[in-house]
Design brief:
Low-confidence stretches: 164-169, 313-330, 342-359
Number of helices: 16
Helix content: 55-70%
Distance between the termini: 84 Å
Shape: globular
Length: 359
């Protein structure tokens, strides 16, 4: 059962964003990854077929029968946070929310026709009120952005891939779509983190929540600055081999690494875009139909170009150097992978005299 009431107000003084469009907080990589996903060969066909076949009613019945539905009578503090988050982001219909027994901290927003928010007992027990508020805002951000539809398809296809894995080549096409969905979903998490910050309006609480997801409830043993320094070390460390390993490590994951999420969110909180939203200047849903697809592409392309230019990752730096016309690709790869300081020896530079002398 959902609600449309507007009697509730934020439990403490926080800004509200009437009519805000998800475009206001969506990460450029989220939008561009979703566009790329939709262009994947066969995705539209699979998506349309699954939209009619996915057992959404079964999902709702499952959570209704085997989880606790959040309401004024059950987990009332979470219910207040949910209504509060919907009020701040101006989401007219409050999604159903369930708490399910699972010691692993997790939350998700799923559903095709209407979003359902599910949080685990492990998460509820791990986070304090302000940290949990950011998580609830994160999930409401998923709902406002329409992410729940693709998340549901991802869950179904992941299970399907396991069932057909024994068939020769049976899961190749499925896994191609699953991989693309995971890439998009990792980017969508960065968008939802921003929505969580807009709802909680407490950067330190958002940072603490991410630290706890990484290191458990021993908050007194952790430090935000040191945690963020890990993100810098992760990006800067190693050579091209480590860059490749980073890619391989993240491929099977549905979420970005927590240190990366923390660094991305802090960077956005210090940006002009965030300040403009807080000042009341943001795109409205009423303007979504007039939004330029070309502008979205241009913004995404600009974001990736800035990311490559500013990245300290060895692979991204190499890509930036090559894009800037800095020399020979083969020589740079040889130098990076072998650690040779001078690249490949040029003609006459093998350590033996060729009898011609030097200029």
């Amino acid at each position: 059962m959902t609600e449309t009431g507007r009697e509730n107000v934020p439990s403490r003084a926080r800004r509200r964003f009437p009519g805000i469009s998800s475009r206001a907080y969506e990460h450029p990589a989220d939008r561009s990854a979703l566009v790329a996903l939709r262009k994947l060969s066969g995705f539209d066909t699979v998506f349309k077929a699954l939209s009619g076949l996915l057992p959404e009613r079964s999902l709702r019945l499952l959570y209704l029968s085997d989880s606790v539905r959040v309401s004024d009578a059950q987990f009332a503090h979470l219910h207040d946070m949910l209504r509060d988050a919907c009020y701040i982001l101006d989401l007219e219909k409050v999604p159903s929310m369930y708490v399910t027994q699972d010691p692993k901290p997790n939350a998700m927003c799923i559903g095709l026709d209407e979003p359902i928010i599910v949080v685990t007992t492990g998460l509820v027990e791990l986070l304090d009120e302000e940290e949990m508020r950011a998580v609830v805002g994160h999930e409401v951000g998923h709902a406002l952005s329409g992410h729940s539809v693709y998340r549901t398809v991802l869950l179904f296809l992941t299970g399907l891939a396991l069932k057909v894995a024994w068939i020769p080549l049976g899961n190749v096409a499925v896994m191609a779509i699953v991989t693309a969905l995971r890439e998009w979903f990792r980017k969508s998490e960065l968008s939802a983190d921003r929505a969580g910050l807009l709802v909680g309006q407490d950067l330190q609480a958002s940072m603490r929540g991410l630290m706890k997801l990484a290191g458990g409830h021993h908050l007194h043993e952790m430090n935000v600055d040191a945690f963020l320094a890990q993100a810098d070390e992760y990006e800067e460390s190693g050579d091209l081999r480590d860059s490749v390993l980073k890619i391989l490590n993240v491929l099977p994951r549905s979420h970005p690494f927590t240190t990366v999420r923390a660094a991305e969110l802090k960077k956005w909180s210090e940006s002009r875009d965030y300040q403009r939203i807080m000042d009341g200047h943001y795109p409205r849903r009423s303007e979504d139909k007039d939004a330029s697809v070309t502008d979205s592409f241009r913004e995404s392309a600009s974001h990736y170009a800035d990311t490559v230019r500013g990245s300290k990752d060895p692979l991204m730096k190499l890509v930036g150097d090559i894009a800037g016309g800095a020399g020979d690709l083969g020589g740079k790869l040889f130098e990076k992978f072998t650690g040779a300081s001078g690249g490949r020896p040029a003609a006459g530079e093998d350590g033996k005299s060729d009898g011609t002398g030097t200029a």
